[in-house]
Amino acid sequence: QDILVSTQAQYERAADEVEAGNTIVLADGEWRDFEIVITGEGRADAPITLRAQTPGGVILTGQSNLRIGGEHVVVSGLVFRDGYSPTGEVISFRRDSDDLARNSRVTETVIDGFSKPNRTETDYWVGIYGQNNRFDHNHLSGKTNAGVTLAVRLNTEESRENDHRIDHNYFGPRPNLGSNGGETLRIGTSHYAQFASNTTVENNVFDRTSGEVEIISSKSGGNTLRGNLFLRSRGGLTLRHGDGNLVEGNVFLGQGVDHTGGIRVINQRQTVRGNYMEGLRGTGFASALTVMNGVPNSPANRYVQVVDAEIERNTIIDSTRITLGAGADEERSAAPVDTSFASNLMSGQGEGPFIRVDADVSGIDFANNAVLSGVLDDAVADLPRADSEMVRAANGLLYPTDTALADIGVPRDMRVLQLSDVGIDWYPKPGEPAEFGSGQRIVVGEGASALLAAMAGAQDGDQIVLSPGTYEIDRTIPVAARVAVSGSPDGETVITFARPTLFELQTGGGLRLSDLTIDGAAAPDSSANAVIRTSTMPVSGNLAIEMDGVTVRNLDVNSDFDVIYFGASTLADSVRIIDSTFTDISGTVVSAASEADDQGRYNVEYLDIEGSQFRNVRGGVADVYRGGRDESTFGPHVGITGSSFVDVGEGSGASLTLHGVQRTEIARNRFESSAPIAITHTVGVPVTALSNNDFVATPEPLLTEMNYPGEPRVEMVDNTYAAEVGQ
Amino acid sequence: QDILVSTQAQYERAADEVEAGNTIVLADGEWRDFEIVITGEGRADAPITLRAQTPGGVILTGQSNLRIGGEHVVVSGLVFRDGYSPTGEVISFRRDSDDLARNSRVTETVIDGFSKPNRTETDYWVGIYGQNNRFDHNHLSGKTNAGVTLAVRLNTEESRENDHRIDHNYFGPRPNLGSNGGETLRIGTSHYAQFASNTTVENNVFDRTSGEVEIISSKSGGNTLRGNLFLRSRGGLTLRHGDGNLVEGNVFLGQGVDHTGGIRVINQRQTVRGNYMEGLRGTGFASALTVMNGVPNSPANRYVQVVDAEIERNTIIDSTRITLGAGADEERSAAPVDTSFASNLMSGQGEGPFIRVDADVSGIDFANNAVLSGVLDDAVADLPRADSEMVRAANGLLYPTDTALADIGVPRDMRVLQLSDVGIDWYPKPGEPAEFGSGQRIVVGEGASALLAAMAGAQDGDQIVLSPGTYEIDRTIPVAARVAVSGSPDGETVITFARPTLFELQTGGGLRLSDLTIDGAAAPDSSANAVIRTSTMPVSGNLAIEMDGVTVRNLDVNSDFDVIYFGASTLADSVRIIDSTFTDISGTVVSAASEADDQGRYNVEYLDIEGSQFRNVRGGVADVYRGGRDESTFGPHVGITGSSFVDVGEGSGASLTLHGVQRTEIARNRFESSAPIAITHTVGVPVTALSNNDFVATPEPLLTEMNYPGEPRVEMVDNTYAAEVGQ
Ligand SMILES: [Ca+2]
Ligand SMILES: [Ca+2]
Cα(A445)–Cα(A680) distance, rounded to whole angstroms? Predict the structure, then answer.
């Protein structure tokens, strides 16, 4: 019996009376602010079904969600978008704590950008409770707020040893969250680390799921993670807690993207077999393969020693790092034991060690492996080398031509998942984001109103070209698309502005400025001005800023006039400043230090400054802050090269302030009559190098380690110091 | 010739061609996102007119504003509401910097709540430039963001000695801004302090214009401020810069409201004559009358010594303070000279000195004054006393019955402005805000959904009464009206919540909780939970929170679980906690310390805690922060009385943290096994008293002065100290 409903009231009446074998059909169209509850006692041969009239025809918007209780309930064909859940979950496999779903299924359902606007407010998009549920052929993409995308919950006994199956789903791009809480899939939590989940995760695609260091965090025992495909995803699959998990036949393709990782092994009786990793660039805990050291006699929710692991027939090629005994320190002193490492095919890239050993590996039994290339740490220097051409097979994977290696690495008949195997054919998978300048070219005549009109209408990728002249802007320009604004080669283009802020970055915003001059002389004497600032409204998604060939001058009508200012709860994927000139700035050129609550959040992932000139910048050129002890993130990364600093940092006491930055390169710069560089290392393994810089009438860099007990871990090469200008 | 226009395009064509004598008529209705520009050469006998089809029938909403250039332009009948200006002004008497208005007028126009949503973003509602313009019979009410309501600008020569007239306007309630920038009217700025403005401000009403310490800031010379009425407005009229101003015939009625002030005199040749002050409670710079000390040889934009002032025939009664030589210190050492203080009638109230003298007053010539009551400082102890009954005359003012006093104080025939004399008869003046519980009473049956539905529909003043039982709330409840929620006398009412926040205060929100229990045990282990928190969206207007007979317990699922948390750019007029109990809180009961950028902003004006019990509160009971050196505000005020603290403040190191609080009373409390009270004085003249408190196994209070050179200015009376519990 199909019951077609067109209003929430009709739905409620139908749902109240639904019985085994019934189907409730939601009429096509937009359903706004609809919190769907479906529960009842279906049967295997007569389930309770809730479906869209047409698959994809029902759009749930506003404050909507779905809760499923009872058993043998099947939901399909819904699309959640243009809104967010008012509660802690979008799709919940329980009606409430007394009514968990059993033998139920959600399929062909979409959650697309259905994120809480405030990125620090957490939720789960999918919470799976109960027993024997299936979540398959769904499309989840674009989660921008904190909280796991899909969580299997073990918080009550009825939800353990659950035999859930999560398969054929498309997990689409999840942008870098810039803090903990960006996992795409988590099974269990540390509170219930000692329990088995017995969940199967198979044949899913994880496409650019780069929320944090953990793409999948398995925090329970007995799980099977099989046949999944990871595409250009930062982070890795982590067997964080729980024993006896199987990780088999997964494919990780990093395509050279920073911090793309593979599998991290912790705990007992883990099997990692027949996985294929190619083009991964992760190191440390995000290595292509990481085998951790444990804490002796660790409780289940700390770091359990690796015992009885079986790591066999994996192929790891064109990758940067394998780490054995990772995380070894005074506390994590228990090296892996009774572990088999056999028939793995490996080839490294890059200058560092390909296989790095941080602890005793005598508890690992190496057999029948082959290393095609890469630097090996001494402890594994006797791993057998091989030399074979690699050829791409029909399944898309690389195999050695040397038949002697036929039984090393992944098998020839390995099946590789295709994008078309997962998700939903009626809902397209997202392509690449628009690059700056990839869209329409819009030439603007003289006059502020023409520029304002062009900005108001600009779409992602559009490039606005300004004619020569002066543009006197009387308002803050909102930027909610990825827009490039450039001057003209035919004469100077100058922008002045009469408000405290010239450009305000909002959700979806990105700004590239090139070949123009910005003059702050007309700005008011307010308390905190900026050329570019993030909105005080919540900003979802990540921002990007580029300045190339830009002159910024006269930001000195007040004492704290920044060029770029990031507010709390905002994150830029990148800030690039190239061949630009900054003169007479009372504030900071890049102020990315609003996340001061030491939760581990930060404002910019990559900051790069190249070939630029800074003169009389009182607040310093960059202030980047990542506080606290969280290690769920990879950044910030800062590169400052080929630039000159004169009279920089008198106000702040530092020409550059880098606190908690993870990768720092400062090279080939000249600092003259400036305040010192101030670098503070907090947690993690920061990589900091200063080379070929000239410091003239500028104090030496101030280097501080907050937690590491030794000398500051900073590589200082070929820097020069002169006490006075002209020396 | 009247030209009726119905669209923005029609308007633009009409405005392009407008000539002397033309009238453009805007059709009645809503005009959204309309930036009106009107300019042209009108003549005195043939002005250019822009008017609403029906006065008040044209509503400008969204991002709208009005710019007037040219001369003899008259605009009338417009209403700006439900939006804000995209630029720095709503109504501007210039089209741009080259086209200032002359001989032009805006009348019968309304700006109502047309505030930028972010309270720290500044604008002027009205900017008057040019020459000989008139702004009259307008209604300006409810500005909640920073920036002067009406500014007369002298920034170019064409705008000086301007003969503008500002008259018969209604300046309605302006809430406390909690920082500098809340002036209602400003004439000039310190940059142009040496110029004459020659502006007349007469017959305006300032009703509850309580944005900051200055209601009117006259920063130029030659102005006339006459016949205005100030009702219950915190702050005062300040002759901040410029000489030769006349302040005459104004009426200040404080009605006993805190910090209501009168007139502050600085600079040369000021005349303060025939003004009437009654019921004022201001002190310091907001005294009913303040005569400042100056800086010797001060430039025009510092503190010019009072010379040649004439202060005569003013009536100051039932008021707290007159201060002579105010602000005297090492720098401001030049006392008033050549000053006449004559025929003033004065009567004080309260315990402190009524006439306080902070400097040498030998340069003031006292003559024919009469003091009816009040304590006088020694230096003025010989002012003549009088004893006369006061009777209210037909004009509403109090006069002495003693005919010997007939020529002392304001004249009998003084005209007192009425509300009906100002503003617009077709636009009602705002009444009192809704008190908690003054509206509808809504009884809610058991169950979370009933409570959620009641909250969603609640209006200002409504009271929601919960039946006994447990309410399990699965979402954050937005609060955008002034709502009271109370339990039932028939049994315990318990609210639990499964999200990090239970109540989120938004613009317009206020919350009173009474006679119920809030239990945090079901809240998630997120990074920063709170029972009540302000929205991360901009919050305009001021908030209020009350808890009376409330039990809060088990806020300890994470390490920073607050009861009340105020985010940046939010201000509560008051937080009151009465007869309530707080147990096992990992965070802070009242966290009002987000304004950490030392701009002088703060989160709470009045915090009062009475008769409450605190046990095991790790973060402390209150954390109130007002940093920086700004002195434009009166608060925060903190009162903690009759309460008990046990095991409070272990996490934060302080049971109470008060930084920059201006008035503190901590009395009749018991502190046991708790961290010390930490009080830091920053600027101003903080009044801090600790009396009759018992400190048991609790360190003595930590008292710090940041700028004042002497011992901490804290009155400590009858406090007891015991080293151990049971002593
Ligand atoms: Ca994590
Ligand atoms: Ca002020």
Answer: 48
Pull the structure tokens for residue B110.
């309304």
| Cα-to-centroid distance, B291 and ligand 2 (Å) | 18
Nearest alpha carbon to residue B654 among B607, B695, B613, B619: B619
C-alpha A533/C-alpha A382 separation (Å) is: 55
Inter-chain CB proximity A499 and B87 less than 8 Å: yes
- Has residue A727 been placed in a domain? yes
Predicted pLDDT at A498:
94
Sequence-ordered list of residues with C-beta below 8 angstroms from that of B224, at least 6 positions apart, any chain: B199, B200, B201, B202, B245, B246, B248
Select the residue from A121, A474, A601, A625 to test the B interface by mutation, using most B Cβ atoms within 10 A: A474
Task: Quick: pLDDT tens for A601-628.
Answer: 999 999 999 999 999 999 999 999 999 9
CA of A350 to the centre of ligand 2 (A): 61
Structural domain contains residue A674: yes
Give residue A1's pLDDT. Answer: 75
Residue A679 lies in domain: 588-727
Which of A148, A72, A75 has its CA nearest to residue A107? Answer: A75
Two tokens, residue A580: 């630009």
Residue among B87, B499, B538 whose CB faces A536 most closely: B538
Under DSSP, the state recorded for A421 is G
- Could you count the other beta carbons within 10 Å of the beta carbon of residue A227? 22
Closest to B537 (Cβ–Cβ): which among A86, A120, A538? Answer: A538
B655 assigned to some structural domain: yes
Strands B99-100 and B94-96: antiparallel
Q: Buried (b) or exposed (e) across B143-161, using 16+ Cβ within 10 A?
A: bbbbbbbbbbbbeeeebbb
The reply to whether residue A474 touches residue B526, judged by beta carbons under 8 angstroms, is no
**Bridge pairing between strands B482-486 and B469-473:** unpaired
Q: Which chain B residues are within 8 Å of A182, Cβ to Cβ? A: none
Q: Which of B86, B499, B537 sits opposite A537 (nearest CB)?
A: B537
DSSP 8-state class, residue B412: T
In which band, very low, low, confident or very high, does the pLDDT at A727 lie, cut at 50, 70 and 90?
low
Q: Among candidates A702, A726, A578, which has minimal Cα distance to A652?
A: A702
CA distances from A640 to A611, A664, A671, B503 (A): 9, 8, 12, 45
Q: How far is the CA of A564 from the centre of ligand 1 (A)?
A: 30
Name the residue among B203, B204, B319, B312 with its Cα closest to residue B253: B319
Nearest to B549, CA basis, from B461, B496, B604, B485: B485
Q: How many CA atoms lie within 13 A of A595 on its CB side?
A: 24
Phi, psi of A673 (to 5 degrees): 50, 40
B269 touches chain A (CB under 8 A): no
SS3 B335: coil
pLDDT at A559 over 90: no
A597 CA → ligand 1 middle, Å: 18
- Domain CATH code at residue B527: 2.160.20
Is beta strand B150-152 parallel, antiparallel or unpaired with respect to B124-128? parallel
pLDDT (mean) for B477-506: 95
Q: What is the DSSP string of B20-70?
A: TT-EEEEPSEEEES-EEEE--B-BTTB-EEEEESSTT-EEEEEE-EEEE-S
Degrees to nearest 5, angle at CA A391 with A390 and A394: 145
Q: Report, as an integer, the average pLDDT of B310-334.
A: 96
Q: Give the model confidence (pLDDT) of A168-195 as tens digits.
A: 999 999 999 999 999 999 999 998 999 9
B87 interfacial to chain A (CB closer than 8 Å): yes
User: Can you tell me the ipTM of this complex?
Assistant: 0.85
CA gap B704, B678 in Å, rounded: 8
Start-to-end CA distance of chain B, whole Å, equals: 91
Number of residues written out for chain B: 727
The structural domain count of chain A equals 1
Whether A76 maps to a domain, the answer reads no
Q: Given the structure tokens 């100030």, which residue do they identify? A: B230
